[in-house]
Amino acid sequence: MEVTVVTVLHFKWEYKQSMNSTSSHSAVANELYEMLSPGVQAELVKAERSMTVPEGTTLIRQDVPPENLVIINSGKVAVSLNCMRGAASVDYSEPGKVFGMRALVSGELPEINVTCVESCSITVVPRDYFLSLLQNNPEIYFGVAKVLSSDLKIADRILRKNSRRFFCGPRSRTVKPD
Questions:
Q1: pLDDT greater than 90 at residue 19
Q2: Taking the model in full, what pTM does it have?
Q3: Are strands 49-53 and 98-99 parallel, antiparallel or unpaired?
Q4: For domain 2-166, which CATH number applies: 2.60.40.10, 2.60.120.10, 3.20.20.370, 3.20.20.70?
């Protein structure tokens, strides 16, 4: 047995893996892998590590550079933003969602927190490995675009929901022309 140590936001998780086994890989159903060729999926599988993390684990922290791309295999996570009055939970995500992509690709710090609201099975791909693979396999950009497009759709939904609640009041009125 080989003991592997994976760090997620400075918390180290150890798990045992048989030397001949492969990591339980997430290519089956996540928004990134479904866009990739089997060859590129196989390259990602070489570096990915799967683990179960407990409720309350922070997978992505606002303003902290992620060390890994994080894929949710099972369980539920809360996506929140730090606001002036504390953290505001803005969305929940379930299996198949990929987190940390924008920060990894752009080099900018994450603007969200991703926290497990129940025990979650996750897969992580180390940042440097993913970026190297991306540089050598431009086809991955189609998968990156899909993940980022999904993130924009979530942001749009949140903005629409919150703008109606905070800016439009209970009902909008039609203004009659003069």
A1: no
A2: 0.73
A3: unpaired
A4: 2.60.120.10
